[in-house]
Amino acid sequence: MATALRRLAKCSVSARLLSFAGHSRGRRGHFARPCTVVAQRNFSSASTMTVDLDSSTGIAVMKLHSPPVNSLSLDFLTEIAISLEKLEMNKGCRGVVVTSALPKIFSAGLDILEMYGKSPERCGEFWRAVQEMWLKFYSSRLVTVAAINGSSPAGGCLLSMTCDYRIMADNPRYSIGLNETQLGIVAPFWFKDTMVNTVGHRTAEIALQLGLLYSPQDALKIGMVDELVPEEKLVSTATEAMARWFAIPDHARQITKSAMRKPTIDKLLSARETDISNFVSFITKDSIQKSLKLYLENLRKKKA
Ligand SMILES: CC/C=C\C/C=C\CCCC/C=C/C(=O)SCCNC(=O)CCNC(=O)[C@H](O)C(C)(C)COP(=O)(O)OP(=O)(O)OC[C@H]1O[C@@H](n2cnc3c(N)ncnc32)[C@H](O)[C@@H]1OP(=O)(O)O
């Protein structure tokens, strides 16, 4: 099933930029089922998420549910990307709220187990799926709002930064940021670019080098998130925020979004294969594997 999903994801890449500029590629029936609430719910055999589309508002809520920490494995990334693709193709959908169904965690970022002790081939496949998820979200025609209801390190922060707007639960126990350097690894250029586009160059420089994780209050101060609300109001605030974006004619908003993001997207598209081989050669180095091993051990020790 997951392999079939990945194949489908690869086939649809070339259509992305068309939809980005507001052109419809969306012939119904491209997928086996139309994108309705029930079809979405049934779509994922692993039940790693629910996607509820309210046809009266055009807002879908995508709730990530991959215990224990919504870490982004190859299969999970593929499911997220395909779910977004299905929403993109549904003319009744104008926006998506991304949130977590797990308590206290939005997403723990990339699944470290996908980067530790894996073959170069598997690492390459994994990295392509990370790129694909980023490309789909960053270039989405939809209004995307992240409702960040828990900690969101590294890849979790990246996912939220691909969205148009971020609302975080005002809980000082949660943190968010690109903390890669703390693991002894390096955020690739398109993670860095997304961060720069979100918080500006100087703040990104400090945040990335030090691998900083910010409290919600500090994340608000630097512009990593746009709003803080009590956790119970998160999804309702996200759907309310969506109304401001829906008030703008779709084509004008989409073309503007494209103008803002296209250079960053094109940069990855033109270097995609090199980026994969850089990742594979970096992550499979003995020294990096040792760092990851240590980091995993510390994560486990913390619990014991
Ligand atoms: C030159 C350069 C060229 C190319 C680029 C090359 C390189 C690489 C770029 C890679 C970019 C990487 C991006 C990433 O996203 S890396 C992942 C970063 N994530 C983290 O650091 C988060 C780690 N986790 C935590 O801090 C906590 O777990 C968290 C999320 C705050 C939750 O805390 P808590 O509720 O207390 O839960 P536990 O810590 O007990 O965790 C439960 C369970 O989950 C396991 N786990 C946690 N996070 C991950 C993860 N990201 N991947 C896999 N597994 C994870 C944890 O070990 C526990 O497992 P157990 O078996 O003990 O139950």
Automatic annotation (TrEMBL):
Keyword set, alphabetical order: Acetylation, Fatty acid metabolism, Isomerase, Lipid metabolism, Mitochondrion, Transit peptide
Keyword check for Transit peptide: yes
Protein source organism: Paramormyrops kingsleyae
Subunit structure: Homotrimer.
Catalytic activity: (3Z)-octenoyl-CoA = (2E)-octenoyl-CoA; (2E)-tetradecenoyl-CoA = (3Z)-tetradecenoyl-CoA; a (3E)-enoyl-CoA = a 4-saturated (2E)-enoyl-CoA; (3Z)-hexenoyl-CoA = (2E)-hexenoyl-CoA
Record protein name field: Enoyl-CoA delta isomerase 1, mitochondrial
GO annotation terms (biological process): fatty acid beta-oxidation
PANTHER family: ENOYL-COA DELTA ISOMERASE 1, MITOCHONDRIAL, ENOYL-COA HYDRATASE-RELATED
Enzyme class, spelled out: isomerase
Predominant cellular place of this UniProt entry's protein: mitochondrion
Domain of life per record: Eukaryota
Cited function: Key enzyme of fatty acid beta-oxidation. Able to isomerize both 3-cis (3Z) and 3-trans (3E) double bonds into the 2-trans (2E) form in a range of enoyl-CoA species, with a preference for (3Z)-enoyl-CoAs over (3E)-enoyl-CoAs. The catalytic efficiency of this enzyme is not affected by the fatty acyl chain length.
CDD domains: crotonase-like
GO molecular-function term, one example from the UniProt record: delta(3)-delta(2)-enoyl-CoA isomerase activity
Catalytic activity, EC: 5.3.3.8
One cellular component (GO) term of this entry: mitochondrial matrix
Pathway: Lipid metabolism; fatty acid beta-oxidation
Pfam families for the chain: ECH_1 (PF00378)
Protein location: Mitochondrion matrix
Family per similarity comment: Belongs to the enoyl-CoA hydratase/isomerase family.
Alphabetized InterPro entries for the sequence: ClpP/crotonase-like_dom_sf, Enoyl-CoA_hyd/isom_CS, Enoyl-CoA_hydra/iso
Keyword Acetylation among record annotations: yes
